[in-house]
Amino acid sequence: MDDQGAVMRLVHLLRAVTVEFDLLGAEFGARHGLHPTDVRALIHLLDAARSDTRATPGWLSEQLRLNSAGTTALVDRLERLGLVRRSRDTADRRRVLLEVEEKATELGWTFFGPVIGGVVAAAEGFGTGELETVRRFLTAVLEGVDTHAIADQDAKRKLKGGAGR
Known about the structure:
2 strands, mainly alpha, two-stranded antiparallel ribbon
């Protein structure tokens, strides 16, 4: 088997999985009156809670690549829907923390639980070493995408800064 062909088949398969997850996210959002950015924000906030990251509006803004005004509007919308709450950081009362409400977690599990169950069932068919290889691969892909996104943002900033001169 041609190695380049095998790699490209993997790239196309990863893209297909990404498209399917994106479609699921869009369906979830449509059912609950959420914009795709709202869904991404909830995912980032859930991931932050899992990793004990203090999620602030500034942190969320960086994750979503939104400006401050856009992030404020998004958090206001999620708060009105009862999906997110703002609270003061007990270590620094000047800092606002964002937390996902139980309602959002329940909505997510109701919709995505069967999908997660399917992924877990598929993973159980692989050995520990195989799963570690998949984890390493996906981590490397994610790092590559993040590097591209950062370079793209830097290029946009340079274009924007140079346009006014």
